[in-house]
Design goal:
99 residues; alpha+beta; HU Protein, Chain A; three-stranded antiparallel sheet; 4 helices; 5 strands
């Protein structure tokens, strides 16, 4: 699913124009990005949580030349799905656990 598909899906839910749906989807994404940039955690019940993880600096290798390369420390976004989402994606496993 692409962002355009998501906009179409939101527009199909009610009396919203495509432009209004686009604004809604952009606002949600911008809010998530803004919260992550400021170091906040986002938790959407029944879906999952977004947070930032810190990666330490390390020594890597250039795969072409084999030369050592210093990789700086960085912050990366991380998504952890909720139990409900995991169960919906893997219904067979959820049924086995419930038995």
């Amino acid at each position: 699913m692409t962002k355009a598909d998501l906009v179409e899906k939101v527009a199909g839910l009610g009396d919203l124009t495509r432009r209004d749906s686009e604004v809604i989807v952009e606002t949600i994404f911008d809010s998530v990005i803004g919260a992550l940039q400021s170091g906040d955690k986002i938790e959407i019940r029944g879906f999952g949580s977004f947070r930032i993880r810190q990666r330490n600096p390390r020594i890597g290798r250039n795969p072409k030349t084999g030369q050592r390369v210093e990789v700086p420390a960085k912050r990366v976004p991380y998504f952890k799905p909720s139990k409900e989402l995991r169960d919906l994606v893997n219904p067979d496993e959820a049924a086995q656990v419930a038995s």
